[in-house]
Design a protein that fits this description.
This protein is mainly α. It is built from seven helices and two strands, in the order ααββααααα. The protein has two domains: 3-73, no CATH class; 89-153, no CATH class. A hairpin with a 5-residue loop joins β1 (43-44) and β2.
């Protein structure tokens, strides 16, 4: 997630808890009552939509702020971001082999091949999961779906 978006989300969280940071306003009997009202009223999200968060979520934001300050309100990225969780290493190796040896083979064809040879079971992961893995693989290994065409273009033309 880009830094500006993380900052905007932290500001949204801060705006929800700001009234109680310096002390509980007189009209509320407890922090829980305040958090419940904020939850029911909703919070304007940076994307422009009104969101309703659980009372416990808003209370957690307050605890994070008190403990670690504004930066604690910024969302952290996933620890496994950019990594596939569904494809085990054996299947990944098969996909890499197929894509390197048959660069024009589509994701749908690779998916069917893996099902046909028993490497994966139906429903184990989706074809779109495979496609995302292949797209990332092509970027990392600088592969394209048109390697055979590029190769043919590099052959000198025979004069007629």
């Amino acid at each position: 997630m880009e830094q500006q978006k993380k900052h905007d989300i932290a500001l949204m969280k801060y705006s929800a808890i700001a009234p109680v940071i310096s002390g509980l306003p007189a009209q509320y009997k407890s922090f829980s009552e305040y958090f419940r009202e904020v939850s029911e009223r909703g919070i304007l999200h940076p994307d422009g939509g009104l969101r309703h968060y659980a009372v416990s979520t808003i209370a957690k934001w307050y605890e994070l702020y008190v403990k670690d300050g504004f930066d604690a309100l910024k969302p952290s990225g996933r620890s496994d971001e950019g990594k596939t969780r569904k494809l085990d290493s054996a299947v990944q190796e098969q996909i890499i082999y197929l894509k390197e040896h048959y660069p024009r083979m589509s994701a749908a064809a690779i998916y069917k091949q893996l099902q046909h040879d028993g490497s994966i079971r139906r429903g184990e992961f989706s074809e779109s999961t495979l496609l995302r893995f292949i797209n990332r693989l092509c970027v990392e290994k600088k592969l394209t779906g048109h390697q055979d065409i590029i190769y043919m273009l590099s052959i000198p033309a025979i004069p007629l």
